[in-house]
Write a sequence for this structure.
């Protein structure tokens, strides 16, 4: 096998080393070949029906457990100063 040099630091990499001892660069020439069998079948891409929407959960509390309802009235500084003589 011919000499292989690291593409990063240009150091000579010994045979069958996947990483350079000097800088740690991955050496593609020494990487093992992928021996897995590739599946040439197309992937199963059957359409999936959207999930059914569930009704929202509604919780009703008796009036005695309800907090005091906020009022829509906004205090006004002018009305307070006009009432005080």
């Amino acid at each position: 096998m011919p000499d292989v040099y690291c593409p990063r630091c240009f150091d000579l990499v010994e045979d069958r080393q996947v990483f350079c001892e000097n800088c740690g660069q991955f050496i593609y020439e020494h990487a093992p070949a992928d021996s897995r069998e590739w599946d040439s079948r197309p992937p199963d891409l059957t359409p999936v029906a959207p999930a059914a929407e569930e009704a929202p959960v509604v919780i009703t509390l008796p009036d005695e457990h309800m907090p005091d309802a906020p009022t829509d009235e906004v205090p006004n500084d002018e009305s307070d100063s006009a009432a005080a003589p």
Observations:
- Residues 21 and 60 are 71 Å apart (CA to CA).
- The first strand starts at residue 4 and ends at 5.
- DSSP finds one helix and two strands in the chain.
- The beta strands are 4-5, 12-13.
